[in-house]
Amino acid sequence: MLIATPSLLLPGVSTDATQIVTLVALFAAALTIFEYSAAYPGLVEFRDAPPFNRIRFGSMFLTVFLLTIIARGQIEPTAVTLLVQAIGALIGQAIDFPYSPVRLVILMLPENTSAEQVILVRTAAGMSYLISLLSLAIFAVMIRVNQWPIRNGSFNVWVNLPTFDPTAGGDVVDRLARDARFNVALGFLLPFLIPAAVKATTVLFDPVSLENPQTLIWTVSAWALLPASLFMRGIAIGRIADMIRQQRRRAAPEEESGLLAA
């Protein structure tokens, strides 16, 4: 449903595009079912540590759905599309200040972009960036309130971090803490780096055009939610590093008392 939403709601989608979207959606559905039904780790991180992936998927689905409604309103305006567009415009104007990520996205557009297209991109960027910030806030609250990820039982590092090799060398806690800092830093910088990198590539390639509705939806969604996902991953890995560190501190006095008793 996430992948098919733009094609289902936007008018004028060609038959070839619909077939391609259907194929990609079926592949994504099969991959998801296979990952969550398998007993061994695969590619999805934090598979058995909800609501990490639920928050990421929910924010992605909400972003794609609202941006699709905004894009549909440009072709077939209704009361719902006008309401969502008005809310997005207010958010975009509030976040559009000098050196903000939304301003950088607007500056990324070609110089001959129409005023209507600039307003549409600002609306979409503001809406998606706000949703990404809300998803980060919700995840941070869930960590504190629900004692994530150990409230529902033990945490299996092998299943939830399949790409992390604890035997690669070095202390596990130090490596996890380093990866956490790297992901947080990258998640903070990407909203600023992506528009700057795209603008720099216009010297060698044609400027990026967001006039196509589906291109606008997926580009802006990825721009806002990929950094938020990296930020959440950094917070989660940092939380796991703290858990291992605390477990070591609790185990140290027990080992000392056992040696004294012996």
List keywords for this structure.
single chain; 262 residues; mainly alpha; 9 helices; 73% helix; 0% strand; globular
How would you describe this protein?
- 73% of the residues lie in helices and 0% in strands.
- The longest helix is centred in the C-terminal third of the chain and has 49 residues.
- The mean pLDDT is 87.
- Helix 3 runs antiparallel to helix 9.
- It has 262 residues and is an all-alpha fold.
Please give the structural blueprint.
Layout: H1 5-9, H2 15-37, H3 52-73, H4 79-95, H5 101-108, H6 115-146, H7 157-160, H8 172-201, H9 213-261
Helix pairs in contact: 3-4, 3-6, 3-9, 4-6, 5-6, 5-8, 6-9, 8-9
Radius of gyration: 22 Å
> Helicity, in percent?
over 70%
Number of strands: 0
The succession of helices and strands, N to C, reads HHHHHHHHH
Number of helices: 9
Instruction: State the assembly state of the protein chains.
Output: single chain
Give the end-to-end Cα distance, rounded to a whole number of Å.
Answer: 62 Å
Low-confidence stretches: none
Mean pLDDT: 87
